[in-house]
Amino acid sequence: MSAPETHKIVDPNGHFGRPERLEVAGLMAGQIAHDFNNLLTPLLTYPELIRHEINQNPVVNEYLAIIEKTATEMQFLTQKLLTLARRGRVGKEVLNVNDVIVQVTKFFQGILPQGITIKSELAEDLPSIIGNSAQLFSALQNLYQNAFDALGASGTLLVKTEGLHSDRPIGDEGEVPIGDYVKISLIDTGAGIEAAVLDKIFDPFFTTKRAAKQRGSGLGLSVAHGIFKDHQGYIGFTSKVGQGTAFCVYLPVMRELPPEVITKNGAKEPVPLSVKLNDLPPLGKQRAPRILIADDEQMIRKLFGLIIASEFREALIDQAANGKEAVSAFSVGYHDLIIMDLQMPGQDGRESFFEIQKICLKKQWHMPPIIFCTGFTPSEALAEIIKDSSIHCLLRKPIKAEALLDVIRLRLKK
Length: 414
Known about the structure:
By secondary structure, the protein is an alpha/beta fold. The chain is 37% helix and 20% strand.
């Protein structure tokens, strides 16, 4: 079976000349995901604290397990919203699309109905692209799932890759420019797409599925579109009712390695102090550790304080509602460890980090470990600060109690 030529193309600037729909939805999804992550943190963390406070009670433990399971499912949906929002930049690498497709295929094999078959025709010597394998995995996973939903209990999904040189624009309106691409085709033998919804399938939150069938329906194709857009790619499709659907993805071939990101808005990046975990001085036996929690959510500050107090009962815990308050609190009283939200109004966590670094240099204080917390994808500019050998680290919201305590224990040596 061969794929019919793609006619409808979604370019990086939007869906059929309507970029506002996806951009506005992305902004909304990002804010919703940010709020969800803050709300999910206590839902995933308080059950752990409750277990430590009560005796073994099978009934209560069962209730807590249900809360945790529900919160985990909500966390998966939040990740879809974050991908749709495309908050922050992701690291890029030289990669072969075939490797990603093999991983996605393996993911689905063994969990599909016996009547569904996946066939692969992957081109040898496929040109490399510049991209993020985890992001592409997520995008293709959504396209696979969309095809399986269309197939129902039986049918075939054919996945093809090829190197393509286009000497003329592709698409009804020439959306794909002349150039060299890696083309990915996903062709299913499903029911096809009704003509009435052809122009809506990439719309965020649009779905023809019943809500009970699959939570998060309506985000899959929007998420995929956003990821391909971030890769300067294009996605198109053609469909016939009763005969199936073919999605085609065009990703530009790598021409040269991109330069490393060393500036922000044209300004030279500050250089973080090079301090390793082994360089941390032990706390004196007679001195209680002093910890600063900086987060614009009061609920998170209170929760993190309870988690820390559950193990470090002698710790002195200060709080700050934003980056400026955190810098001010640190400047008047040294803290042995700082827990800092990355996204805060006014002055974010990264900017506050460099302000704290200046204070340490000026007062000849030892740079304290900083645990950054975020629900978004961190920027590449943060990578140098939280590299593996650094005393600083990053935790992704929602954060469980034991994960937070683990990184604190490692940094508060006694």
